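Sync notes, pocket subgroup
Present: LS, DG
LS reminded everyone that the earlier model was apo-only. Rerun requested with fe (iii) ion included. Inputs:
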Amino acid sequence: MSIFSNKAKVAPVPSAAQVRVEKTDRQWREELSPDEYRVLRQAGTERPYTGEYWDTHIEGVYQCRACGAELFTSREKFDSHCGWPSFWAPLADGTVRYIHDRALGMERIEVRCTACDSHLGHVFEGEGYGTPTDQRFCINSVSLKLVPAAEATPAAAED
Ligand code: FE
């Protein structure tokens, strides 16, 4: 059972509500810090247990650090003890997209922001996490920006 057969989780085209963010490489370099650029635009990985959010339990919405699209929420975040923030599902279908990644001699599924195509991390599944989906979205902290519920817009802070 591959994530690619799970149609509910794979949106081949962005939803109508998804705004497409297109910038040149030069613009990304100017707007992002070197660490952000390396991970978001060059598919780098932050070292485990070093990121801002791996052990965060604050309620809120996690936006894409590059474009601000809302990607994950604290409701789907769980303690995977892997050193990176982990979620069992994205905020909604279509907010992220999936790419086969065969780099480093491993077969993995890369997760990118649908809106701006920035690298977020990878998704693993079937590892017995005991979560509703048995999927683990292993996401770099540096790819995310947490907007605490207390600071969020009324729509995002409903409960
Ligand atoms: Fe983005």
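DG: The pocket of fe (iii) ion is lined by residues 64, 66-67, 69, 113, 115-116, 118 (CB under 6 Å).
LS: The radius of gyration is 15 Å.
Action: DG to write up.
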